[in-house]
Amino acid sequence: MTKTEGAARPLPVPAVFRIDPYVPGKSTAPGVGKIYKLSSNETPLGPSPRAKEAVRAAAEGLEAYPEGTARVLRMAIASKFGLEPQRIVCGAGSDEILHLLATAYLGPDDEGVFTEHGFLVYKIAILAAGGTPVVAPETNVTADVDQILAKVGPRTKIVFLANPNNPTGTYLPNAEVERLADALPPQVLLVLDAAYAEYASQADYAAGEALVRGRENVVMTRTFSKIHGLAAIRLGWCYAPEHVCDAINRIRAPFNTSTAAMAAGLASIADAAHIEASIAHNDQWRDWLSQEIAAFGIEVTPSAGNFLLLRFRGAEEARQADAFLTARGLILRAVAAYGLPDCLRLTVGSEEANRLVVAALADFVATRAKG
């Protein structure tokens, strides 16, 4: 027996072992030449050229700590969206903000509610904070306000709602989100995760700024990872009541937003033309992909994001389609972990990638018909 065998050792709190580690979408296809990564909802247009230049310039001061409050970036965000800078907190991606909110508002006897096919990070954040996850069923892969409210009880402290939702692409109209906010007890925090807000062009959609402004228990989170194309640099923010910002600022790391991230965010916000081009590309190709793929008899969920949920005739067929596409360098996202084993999520890619996906799915369906 070695020295360590059978010896006592430090153990994490029991809740840690209830967490299934987050597994990102695939990014490689062994043995395949050119790869088209359509698994992580990354923009095919990439970041603004101005943002790239800002990151290069920021490299000249890497020895210095960042400005700890992200003051200049908060002011730019506030100016862009008509918000109050003192009600904004920045972080290393909106994921960090979600974790900070769970840490600040959940304890061992508390519950956090999220929807059936909601973002996996919610469950992780709730468990990491020592809370209990509570899942509200969805209706037609869409959040259902009545089902959420039915799961809210005396131990509920936080409700997470992705709007639009990842991985389904569905969304709740603003009137329904308002109904949810109105019905929640004042001590329950409603977190509106609007990571894909820029892609949602529906007239009845709202990201949540007005709800935050008019209530003491609503927070909106946003990210620079999607429309801004800055996923690698990790930058996000929230708009919240000042007392919520105070709680987050007390527990966040002192320098949680890097100088390079802040510089890139400032430059990206200023490049409205690049954002508009990204939205226009997504609108065009999301609709085209939806029509082309649906014509093969594959169910496509209407989407308010930069991705589509494709439903096959069962889990086995979804696995076969995934393998078929991967062998051709087209990497989609399997979403069995979200309770959707018969589905794949497809990011809207470049024109080349989009056309290749449609052609490959046509081949897959033809092969399936022969079999």
From TrEMBL:
Pathway: Amino-acid biosynthesis; L-histidine biosynthesis; L-histidine from 5-phospho-alpha-D-ribose 1-diphosphate: step 7/9. Its EC number is 2.6.1.9. It holds the Pfam family Aminotran_1_2. Keywords: Amino-acid biosynthesis, Aminotransferase, Histidine biosynthesis, Pyridoxal phosphate, Transferase. One of its GO terms (biological process) is L-histidine biosynthetic process. Its cofactor is pyridoxal 5'-phosphate. GO terms for molecular function: histidinol-phosphate transaminase activity; pyridoxal phosphate binding. It catalyses: L-histidinol phosphate + 2-oxoglutarate = 3-(imidazol-4-yl)-2-oxopropyl phosphate + L-glutamate. It comes from the Bacteria. Residues 35-361 form the Aminotransferase class I/classII large domain. Gene3D superfamilies: Aspartate Aminotransferase, domain 1, Type I PLP-dependent aspartate aminotransferase-like (Major domain). PANTHER family: HISTIDINOL-PHOSPHATE AMINOTRANSFERASE (PTHR43643:SF3), HISTIDINOL-PHOSPHATE AMINOTRANSFERASE 2 (PTHR43643). Belongs to the class-II pyridoxal-phosphate-dependent aminotransferase family. Histidinol-phosphate aminotransferase subfamily. This is Histidinol-phosphate aminotransferase. It comes from Methylocella silvestris. The gene is hisC.
